[in-house]
Structure formats: structure tokens, C-alpha cells
Amino acid sequence: MLMNRTRSKPTRFNFGSGPSQLPEIVHEQIQAAIDEFDGSGLSILEISHRDERVLALIGSVERSLRDLLSISDDYAVLLCNFSASLQFAALPMNLISESEAIVVEVSGYWSDRAAREFERTHSVWRFQGSLDAGPSRQDSHTARERMMGSRVPGFVFHCDNETIEGIEWPFVPENRYHGIPCARVTDMSSNLLTRPFVVEDYDAIFASCQKSLGLPGMSLLIIRRDCLNDASRYCPTVMNYSEIARAGSVLNTLPVLSLYTMKVMLEWVAGEGGVAEMERRARARSRLMYSFIDQSALYKNEVPAGCRSRINIPFDLPSAPLTEKFLAGAEHRGLMQLRGHRSRGGVRASLYNAMSMAGVEALLGWMSEFEQAQAIERTE
Ligand code: PMP
């Protein structure tokens, strides 16, 4: 029996932090490719990662990324067959020697997770509070003393958008510590393709794929070609950046469905007006959310205005039972996956590129209704 695959207009909005909402057209194209991929006679689920159509797909993903983010030929674009968490382990093994240290700007959960992974193999110097101090901050005396020890900084690391706390860096942190220059590496898992940035400001940029690039499991790495050195002898081959680059990203069996989803996502971004348009929309969505939260007596977001994320907006209600009631009501209205991260609790609205203004308005409608109902309950 032929199934009717026509999807009715979405009545649900997915506010999940990743996997996250995909545009409707992406769902449709994936469904068509599951039937048959690109005239191959095969489903996208069964086709070999070495089929010429799939190799063309990889070429197309790379070209789209280069166009959308103005990536010059000085940089390699690698599609890594492992997640962003594993990049935390891969980066030191690929970029620096064992005797070099890593400077981590700790601004939340993910930069802390990265620091803890780096600490397994390298000395890590943690810096806190740079966000408050601004781009020209001075390192503390103790930090300076530690830096003047026997080790030199290999790279400075920051997480450009802290997905859990909803903190986004409004500037690029320094890549020089007390006169010692070092490489600069950033995790853009949750804000890549949501605003234009200067690729040349970084030596390596990586992102998980389950937010603005499609499906989980893979990560994207944009790396200055002259950073493609010999990796540590302990580095597994499939995590060795030079090997991945040499193999054109096809070192082992790649998840073709994820690649295809990435291709369609990138085409969608380009068709909608590119990264500058994504930025305009992200600003409009987040402005609406924050202005509502700031005038509300019920919902709170404590992140300082200057570094509030445009993408992940956490907020709190006064008690856990009230939060549960809010979340249950939201789900009932098709406002899905709003529960805050388990480390933080509360509520979090993730507004990636595919989130429409209609989704934000539906959420604000429920927030307003819920707040009014609470006010009435209190006065009764
Ligand atoms: N970095 C950031 C900023 C993230 O938000 C996440 C996942 N939410 C990760 C790294 C880890 O990604 P993965 O779970 O795919 O390893």
C-alpha cells in the first residue's frame, strides 16, 4: 500500500538544543532520498559512501560551506566521522606537542567539558571572567606566574556559544598571552551559520552537526592548512586531521544520510539569503524573547545583556512544580523539547536557523497565557 507522505503544515515547534528542528523542505527531500537517491536506484540508507554520487555530495557540502562562510583555500574543510565531544580529545593530539599547554576561556558547561578532556593529556590554564573584562582584559598575577613556568601556550580555546547557559561571546578572545602568541580554536557547535564571522581570526573552528547542519554523530572542522601537522603517535587514524584531509574526508564508512542532510540544510540556508539573513532572523527572534522575559514578573534570565545568546535562551520560573506545569502545558500545545539541560534545570528555548517567527510567537503566546493564569490563581 502506498503511504501518503504529504506532511500537513507543522503544528509542532521543536525547541530542542540538538537534535533540533529541521526546515520542512529538508524533511521532504530526505523522505524522497530514502525512496531513491539521485537516480541511483538505491535508497540513501543503503548507498555506499564511495559511490560517485556520494563523493559529489561531499564536494557539494564543502563548496556550499566555503561560499556561505567565505572560507579561503588556506583552510581545509573536514567532515569528521565523530562528534564534537571527540573533537575535544582530537584537537590537542593534532595541533600541539605534549609539552605545550592549552589556555581555556571557561564560560560555561561546554568549555569546562573541553577543559576536562584536554586535562587528560595536557596542562590546562583556565581563565574565568574574560567575558566580563572584554577583549583587552589583563590576566591575573597568578595566571601570569603559571604561564611563565616551563610550558608555552599551544592554543587558546573558547566555546563561542554556551548552549546550556545561553552565553554567546560578543568578541573574539585574545590569542596571545603575555606576549606569547598561540593558535586560536573555537567550538561553534551551536552558533555556526547563525552570523557571519572572519574565518581568518581562527586556526581551527569546529561544530557538531545536529544543530544548524542536520543530524548528530558527525562534526565539521575548518582548519588552517598549515596546522595540519603530524599528529601525536597516540592519535587514532580516524581522528588524525592530516589523514582525514588526505582522504578527502572519506577515511572510513561515512553516514551518508547525515551528509545528504547537511547538503540540503546548506542549500536551504543559501536559498533563504545566506548567513547574513540567518543573523537578521536570529536577532529578531531573540530580541522578541528577551524583551518578553525582561518585562515579565514570572520568567527570569540572569545572563548579562552583553553576552546573551541569540540562539539558546534559558529561563527560570519560581519553582520546580511551576516549571513542570509550564512544560506539560507547552508540550500539550505542540511546543516541544523545552526542558532545560539536566545540569541546570529550568526551561530552554533553542532557536536555530530553522525556527520560524511563528514558532517564537506560539511560545510567547503560551508564556503569556501561563503567566496570566498564575496571576489570577494568586488573586483568587
Ligand atoms: N559543544 C557544544 C557547544 C555543544 O552544544 C555540544 C552538544 N550539545 C557539544 C559540544 C557536544 O556535541 P556532541 O554531543 O555531538 O558530542
Protein architecture, described:
This protein is an alpha/beta fold. It starts with 12 loop residues before the first strand and ends with a helix. Helices cover 38% and strands 16% of the residues. Strand 8 and strand 9 form a beta hairpin. Bound molecules: 4'-deoxy-4'-aminopyridoxal-5'-phosphate. The site of 4'-deoxy-4'-aminopyridoxal-5'-phosphate has 13 residues, from helix 3.
Q: Structural class from helices and strands?
A: alpha/beta
- Poorly predicted runs are none
Radius of gyration: 22 Å
**Distance between the first and last residues' Cα:** 56 Å
Q: Helical element count?
A: 11
Oligomerization state:
single chain
Give the cofactors and ligands. 4'-deoxy-4'-aminopyridoxal-5'-phosphate
Mind summarizing the main beta sheet?
A: 7 strands, mixed
Sum up the overall morphology in one term: globular
Order of helices and strands: EHHEHEHEHHEEEEEEEEHHHEHEEH
Quantity of strands, as a count: 15
| Mean pLDDT figure | 92
Strand order of the largest sheet: 2-12-11-10-5-3-4
User: What percentage of amino acids are in beta strands?
Assistant: 15-25%
Query: Helicity, in percent?
Result: 25-40%
Short description:
The chain has 380 residues and is of the alpha/beta class.
List keywords for this structure.
380 residues, alpha/beta, seven-stranded mixed β-sheet, two-stranded parallel ribbon, 15 strands, binds 4'-deoxy-4'-aminopyridoxal-5'-phosphate
